[in-house]
Amino acid sequence: MNNPIQASTENLPFPRGTLKPAQSPLFWVQNKDRYLRQLLISDIQKLSGRELLVYFSDCDRSEAQIEPSDDIYLSELLRASRTDKIDLLLETNGGFTDATEKVCSVITSSGKDVRVVVPRRAKSNGTVIAFCGSSIVMGLDSELGPIDPHLNNMPCDFIVKIEGIDPLVLLSAQAGIQQTKKLASQLLKAKMLKDKDEAHVDVIVQRLASRDQYHSHGSVIDASEAMKLGLSVELLPPDDPMWQQLWLLRTIYSHDCLARGYSKVFESEYVSSPIVMPRPAGAR
Q1: Bridge partner residues of 90 (DSSP)
Q2: What does the alpha-carbon distance between residue 83 and residue 112 come to, in Å, rounded to a whole number?
Q3: What are phi and psi for residue 152, nearest 5 degrees?
Q4: Would you give the end-to-end CA distance of the chain in angstroms?
Q5: Which tens digit of pLDDT belongs to each residue from 17-65?
Q6: Do 262 and 256 meet the contact criterion of CB atoms below 8 Å apart?
Q7: CB neighbour class for 173 (10 Å; exposed up to 12, middle 13-18, buried from 19)
Q8: Helical spans, DSSP H, in 62-134
Q9: Which pLDDT does position 13 carry in this prediction?
């Protein structure tokens, strides 16, 4: 008599079944973290019915930012995608606005139906990237943030209000505000808030891009606050099966970044590009 448990697993790849990995044992073991993450990505895709791409930055232990090279890795993920419906899992503290513009261009020009998933945080220009989606998937632990730009570690919104400031500094601060507001407005009007009038969108962007409503750049905009602002948010409760899988995946990335010295990981079921954290000067 056939063993039903054996029959159900014998055609599944390791570690779910008895089929040996196609890779050599040593190579598989050296890369097992990636294989296990990609297995979980596959599980999440079965729940969501959408392809999952990951843009994860180690926000707690590295100074990883949105940088000029990020678009290359994200573009590779999008080119390798096999469906038109994409979930982009995003974790970042923000970064350079010029680099953010290119990342957003890569996402929007792909022609994909994109949702942005924020398990924990997408702050500053990370919030701007979230505007590339038709909606933002959030949980109780998720947060967005104000998008007010900085110049020399000072909020541009403060600089433009200083009397007697150097004209070149003033112009730079004004340009930074205009660049951020223009990008955020264009993204929201093109996708998430395309059915809203321009004045409605402009009010949201003004609230996010100045210190009038959020007095700290690190202010927490949770799912409830994001919905009050007028953003399109899909709130998943803690007991939602997909949220639990997403949170597990996010936790694995956080652990693996620490264990492997990664500052970022760009990953899908088929592509994996971890970025190793630069070694401190003088380190051996």
Answers
A1: 55
A2: 8
A3: 55, 45
A4: 60
A5: 888 888 898 998 988 999 999 999 999 999 999 999 999 999 888 889 9
A6: yes
A7: buried
A8: 70-80, 97-109, 125-130
A9: 77
Nearest C-alpha neighbor of 10 from the set 1, 19, 23: 19
β 85-91/150-151 pair status = unpaired
pTM: 0.92
pLDDT at 9: 63
Rounded-to-integer distance, Cα 270 and Cα 80, Å: 7
CA distance 174 to 162: 12
Helix segments in 81-220, DSSP class H: 97-109, 125-130, 156-159, 167-190, 198-209
Return d(Cα 17, Cα 135) in angstroms, integer.
36
Cα–chain-centroid distance for residue 143?
11
Scanning the structure block, which residue is given the tokens 């967005």?
144
* Coil, helix or strand at residue 56: strand
Vertex 127 angle, CA 124 and 129, to 5°: 115
pLDDT at 277 over 60: yes
* Strands 121-122 vs 143-144: parallel, antiparallel or unpaired: parallel
Q: In 10 A of CB 35, how many CB atoms?
A: 16
State which amino acid sits at residue 156. C
- CA 33/CA 23 separation, integer angstroms: 14
**Which ranges of the chain does DSSP label H, i.e. alpha helix?**
4-9, 25-30, 32-48, 70-80, 97-109, 125-130, 156-159, 167-190, 198-209, 223-229, 241-260
The C-alpha angle with vertex 150 and arms to 225 and 212, in degrees rounded to 5, equals: 40
